[in-house]
User: Fold Armadillo repeat-containing protein 8 from Mytilus galloprovincialis.
Amino acid sequence: MIDDGIPIELRTEAAIVLGSLAKGSEEELQTLVNAGSVNVLLMGITNNNIKFVEACLRCLKTIFLMNDPPVHLIYENKTVIPHMINIISKSLCTQECITTLFSRCCNTKEHQEKLCMNGALATLAPLLTSTIYKVQMPTLKSIAVLCYQNEEVAKATATATYNGESIPSLLVKLLARDKTSEMQMAAARCLTYLCRGGALQPSSNVIMFKALPTVIRMCKKDRTLEENVEGAETLAYLIEEDPELQGIAAISDHIIKTLAEYLRYTDVQQFNSRTTHKKDINWSNELKQAAFRAFASLGANDEDIRKKIIETENLMDHIISGMNSEDIKVKAAAVRCLHSLSRSVQQLRTTFQDHVVWKPLMNMIQNGPENLLVITSSTLCNLLLEFSPGREVNTPRKAILDTGAIGILVTLTGRNESELRLNGIWGLMNMAFQSELKVKSQIIEAIGTEQLFKLLSDPDPNILMKTLGLIRNLLSGKPHIDSIMSVYGTQIMQAVVFILEGDHSADIKEQTLCILTNVADGDDSKGYIMENEDVLKKLMTYMMHTNVKLQIAATTCISNLVWNEEEGAYKRQAKLREMGVQKILQQLLSSSDAILFDRVKDALKQFG
Assistant:
């Protein structure tokens, strides 16, 4: 094939034979690839003889339809993509084969950019209007992979035109009911990716009244299993971040009931599916993961929708079964679904109490794949909230602790990934909320003051905020405050000063002042503030701050320090009066903020 001395007709026959061999098993295909066939074929498409070029392209197309195509070979030679763009219009065969190749060799942002830089969009737009189905379908798939999770390409696609019509307008035409389900689904996926790429508004007619109804329609049981799966997956992605679309989808065409049927599917084959050539597809698992993903998106923001989803028969059992599945896609989708539903306060108090969801969750955190650790640890954070089943007396709370939850969360706080550090400290904060002293002590001992100070220096303000939240939750309830301060008081006060002297937002300063307020609520712990003149002066400064939230927090702390009913109040009042605190309070009586005014009045009453 690479010998120019051999007649072109013979070389063409060789390419055709190679194409026949490429239609064998995956193993045989891999042998062809390993033998260097792709590079030979890529050289072949530069020939001037169109028949030879087409034979090479057909063989390349077959090779790249394999499960794991050698995508890198397309990009090794910088002239390959421009040449393909240049010859795509030569014939129907070149159009079909090259669009198929583009749809199979665009897996990264770098690939997307290389294709676009070489004019792929301008080349693909006219092909959307082709009358040849075998050209239109790979063209749609190419546009989809070009736009997927790429804002720049999505926006360029949305503004690209052919004969005065934008690509979105051309795509809408392909959603028409007289088009095949496969084509409608492919066009809807393109519009979905344009929407998620910020090129189309979720509230636009194109998305709300065209793309959304199409993907929901594909979920109905009169469609093939593949269309059911693609429909649910695309629906999940389309509505994932938009509450309005979630609300509309939830009441459209009995979608929740339809998706529930996915979970009950047991057969593994369907003969009229268009992908029967794919081997070993477990449709039961495919449908389950698609349903879990769609449920996760539907219930992401609305309590009523979550309630409807949770009322699905045996849903929690299906989720637990999914989390225990050997299929990684099912496992991942099930935990995403649980994560979404665990945002529901009401459901945490009721439905979840009847199901031991924490067991497979803890197993996934400890033994599951690394790429699911963010979502599993985030779900654990939700289950550790005060109102959740994981916190009830004589329920999984003790079991979660016995499984080593504190150690797991502390380990996460030391990870390089900020999302994992955040989930670790967030989980500890939730665990400490209204916990017994024994649990609080275990948390402090496990995390240690050194790690606590590291987290207080974390560049992520969310992590700092949750670390302060942990300290605040540890210091709640008079006996607990005094017990913890008697052991860790010096370090906690150092932490407070460290934050108050730093360059931080008002929210972070407010949270720190709230910690001082809790310290001031203890019986013995008040001394840590009263004996620290630097901290007292800081409180006075914040009482006069321009931010009213900081004024309220500082004033509340002062009020706790001077509270009449507590031992030593007179002595503390005298010291603070001498420092000028009472005068500041009197000045604050002119405040127009109702909450601050009430706190000031309460504090002044204590001075008598």
Notes: The longest helix spans residues 478-500. Residues 478-608 form a domain with the Leucine-rich Repeat Variant fold (CATH 1.25.10.10). The chain is about 70% helix and 0% strand.
